[in-house]
Amino acid sequence: MSRAAAPAARVTALALESLAGPTMLLDGALRVLSASPGVEALLGEPVPTGALATRVLCGQSVDRPIAEALAAGRAIVGTVMRPRRDGSLRALRVRATPLVDDGAAAGWLLALDEQPSDGGGPDAPTRFHGMLTRDAAMKQVFHVLERAARRDMPVLVRGETGAGKELVARAVHALSPRAKGPFMAINCAALPASLLESELFGHVKGAFTGALREHAGIFRSADRGTLFLDEVAEMPPELQAKLLRVLETHTVIPVGGTDPVAVNVRIVAATHQSLRRAVELGRFRADLMYRLRVVPVFLPPLRARRGDVALLTQHLVDELNAAGERHVARVAPGTLAALTRYPWPGNVRELRNALEYAFVIGEGPVLNEADLPPEVTAPERAEETAATAVNAPPELGGSPEAQRIERALERANGNRTRAAKILGMSRVTLWRRMRELAMAHDA
Ligand SMILES: Nc1ncnc2c1ncn2[C@@H]1O[C@H](COP(=O)(O)OP(=O)(O)OP(=O)(O)O)[C@@H](O)[C@H]1O
Ligand SMILES: [Mg+2]
User: Fold this and answer.
1) DSSP strand E in 290-358: where?
2) Is the distance from the beta carbon of residue 166 to the nearest atom of ligand 1 less than 6 Å?
3) How far is CA 26 from CA 10, 107, 149, 332, 411, in A?
4) What letter would DSSP give residue 225?
5) What is the value of pTM for the model shown?
6) Measured from the CB, is residue 378 less than 6 Å from ligand 1?
């Protein structure tokens, strides 16, 4: 058979499947006009043209709610149970939409998918303080966090940009006996050493020009609570020594002051690179690493847990739907395939940005592949992006990353905040990477 000779009904079925997943078209009398290949795969048997749809879906027993809705010409979302080969049952979700012509149902569009079984099983999705996953390594992280949080142990979170380090820090705080106390966060890469010191430890009045009044500093503000030290590996050496002293003595000495002030703070630190490696390179004090790294947890990047992409996509689409600008009823299978292929150097944050982009670019109830940002759909680019994931050390593929950053800056007309959004990283991370890559940044 020549490819060009595929019958129109078959082409229509394929087109519908690419937009809406496994689908059947019925005539007004509920007989099958066409069924896409995914339907046969879900049902485990061929679906003959002309067969009665209720019979095909429900066998001899007629599924009442669905059959009644179809008879009444009403749209419905329902569930039918289908036996697997091993005899166990699985739930199929059926969405039936009447195709109204001149006020009457001229036919039906039935979209099918397998109802995710959320009960138990190693792949079942879990939610942990705003973090969703079905990945075994992530679940293990949650288990460790749950236990460690109750004790006052310092936690060190390692993960790429956008992988959820801040969510983890907040979860540890929320699960700890300090939950009612303050949660404070500071990015150790964002400030020059002198400013960072007074932000951390405070300063006395007149400590330096412009120190018009006393400043408590974030350590004292976090008293009886949790302090999140983000990008801790970037801390300048002289401050590493001071931080170590604070952790050992449980006191801070404000800049320009002489008297130590007692502080009671639980530390959660985060880093995108291995702290051990930073120690080996002589950039980080070993003694401080041992203080911070009592409970080390590693958040795997999104590309290492591809099963989470669909789960997170559904979750983020729900969130974006709730914002109300547009209602996406369905993510086209091609969209999901592209999202699952892409290596996500900016992890969940980048996924969220890509979906936000697609929400704005496209319209209607289906999220289409063509509406995704170009870097997500262009596979040749994707490999390059994976090789230059934002967290790759500059010596490994730094220059393609510089190009990637430059492209994003171009697209954002030089606007750093928008460029960071496109790249799926925080503004601070973008700034740091530009500095590490010795890129001009004069804004
Ligand atoms: N497992 C997850 N489930 C749901 N949302 C997530 C998950 N992981 C991350 N997110 C979301 O992704 C975004 C980035 O997370 P977060 O700010 O914690 O990342 P990060 O590791 O601190 O990144 P950076 O290093 O750039 O600061 C947030 O919007 C967060 O809500
Ligand atoms: Mg963060």
Assistant:
1) 295-298, 330-331
2) yes
3) 14, 5, 56, 21, 46
4) E
5) 0.73
6) no
CA–chain centroid gap for 160, Å, is: 12
Give the model's confidence band at 200: pLDDT under 50 very low, under 70 low, under 90 confident, else very high. very high
CA 348 to chain centre: 2
Q: Atom 29, ligand 1: which residue's CA is nearest? A: 349
Cα(292) to centroid of ligand 2, in Å?
17
Q: Distance between CA 371 and CA 373 in Å, rounded?
A: 7
Sign for the CA dihedral angle at 125, 135, 338, 41 comes to negative
pLDDT reported for residue 207: 81
**Residue 412: helix, strand or coil by DSSP?**
coil
Q: Which residue has tokens 């969220």?
A: 352
Sign of CA dihedral 408, 411, 414, 418: negative
Q: Indicate the SS3 state at residue 186.
A: strand
What are the chain's domains?
A: 3-114 (3.30.450.20), 126-298 (3.40.50.300), 302-436 (1.10.8.60)
Which residue is listed with tokens 């120690």? 279
Q: Is the CB of 141 under 6 A from ligand 1?
A: no
64-81 pLDDT, tens digit per residue, is: 678 888 888 888 888 887
Element (H, E) at 184: strand 183-187
Amino acid at 414: G
SS (H, E, C) 250-288: CEECCECCCCCEECCEEEEEEECCCHHHHHHCCCCCHHH
